[in-house]
Amino acid sequence: MVKGLITVFPTSIRPRMRKINWDGLEEIRVRIGWPVELIYGNHNEWLGNYDSMIDRQCLDEMLNYITGYSIYAMEEELKQGYITFSGGHRIGITGHATYENLKGTNEPRITNMIDIGGLNIRIAHERKGCAEQVVPFIRRDKSIYNTIFFAAPGVGKTTCLRDAIRILSNGDETYDGMKICVVDERSEIAACVNGKPQNDLGKRSDILDACPKVVGMQMVLRSMSPEVIAVDELGNEDEFLLLEQMRCSGVKILGTMHAGEIEQVMRNPFVRESAKKETIERFVELVRLENGMREFRIYDGKGRLIWGK
Q1: What is the mean pLDDT of residues 151-177?
Q2: 138 by DSSP, 3-state: which?
Q3: Which residues pair with 122 in a beta bridge?
Q4: What is d(CA 43, CA 291) in angstroms, rounded to the nearest whole number?
Q5: Cβ-contact 184, 150 below 8 angstroms
Q6: Helix, strand or coil, per DSSP, at residue 54
Q7: Predicted confidence (pLDDT) per residue in 244-256, tens digit
Q8: What b-and-e string marks burial along 272-306, b requiring 16 or more CB atoms within 10 Å of the CB?
Q9: Residue 19 contacts by C-beta under 8 Å, 6 or more apart in sequence?
Q10: β partners of residue 32
């Protein structure tokens, strides 16, 4: 599934892409005027040198492959600054953003992305078992604590969330599997293709694909009788307010958010308010070590360390 990404590269570059080391590859960065950059857990490499720099023709060729020769059909995703590719890989985009102010406000709204000059292909990895040491700390009798995984971008929050969903959905000889509804706004958790998840989320998971989180959480809360709702990248006030509604309904939450350390998490005003109401009960920090490996730290709802170092 990862090597299928070769098809988004210009035909002139594909022979070199077939020879790279795909094990541990986390990002592929493509910029006009520079060779392709390969980002691994603890180092980076350049694909060739100054005789193999990306030019406008190469980048336009890639955009045609990525969008299926219909860049206008992907306009809404381009406005968000990314395209989700088959397999759950996210392709971030930089270029010239055009915008307008929302009617009656001074709040800008992106209307288009033109003169695209850079791509960041974030490789989606399915690492079964990576959350096994975490799950015992988020279980609570036959249910779970409301839990948020956090880390800096690119460290692996979504990968760990995905594996926790799989473990909890399948259950084991001690616990029955839980009914989990996954609201997969960016199609990164399940990586659905034609309604079928390309990643293993367990036998009792239901996926609502490409639906905004707030709308999707309300939909599954009303119609799917979930025990757990799982979402990626919590951030705005409406999303955190909905967590309180879920808590009052007896539904548990598994989510992720961006933050580099627990102090940053606890300074978030929405998290602070949730902490007062004891809505969020566990925080799981994912840390990337110098050798590229990851380790976990577990905190309670007040941000106090309960496991790890």
Answers
A1: 95
A2: helix
A3: 27, 90
A4: 9
A5: no
A6: strand
A7: 999 899 999 999 9
A8: eebbeeebbbbbbbbbbeeeeebebbbbbbebeee
A9: none
A10: 54
CA dist., res. 280 & res. 300, Å (int): 8
Q: pTM, whole model, 2 decimals?
A: 0.86
Packing angle between helix 213-223 and helix 237-248, nearest 10 degrees? 10
Residue with token string 């994912």: 286
Query: Which tokens is 264 given?
Result: 């940053």
The C-alpha atoms of residue 175 and residue 180 are separated, in whole angstroms, by 14
CB 282 within 8 A of CB 303: no
Q: Are 212 and 227 in contact (CB under 8 A)?
A: no
Q: φ and ψ at 13, to 5 degrees?
A: -100, -20
Confidence of residue 129 (pLDDT cuts 50, 70, 90): very high
Which residues are paired to 90 by β-bridges? 84, 122
What pLDDT is stored for residue 219 in this prediction?
97
Contact 124, 89 (CB under 8 A): yes
Angle, CA 194 vertex, CA 188 and CA 199 arms, to 5°: 40
Length reported for the chain: 309
Q: Which tokens go with 301?
A: 């709802």
pLDDT bucket at 309, cuts 50 / 70 / 90? confident
Q: Looking at residue 116, what is its pLDDT? A: 92
Outline where DSSP puts E strands in 53-164: 82-85, 89-101, 108-122, 139-140, 143-144, 147-151
Average pLDDT rounded to a whole number, residues 39-50: 88
- Give the pLDDT of residue 1: 54
- The rounded distance, in Å, linking the Cα atoms of 307 and 193 is 38
Q: Which residue do the tokens 């926790």 mark?
A: 164
Other beta carbons less than 10 A from residue 124's beta carbon: 24
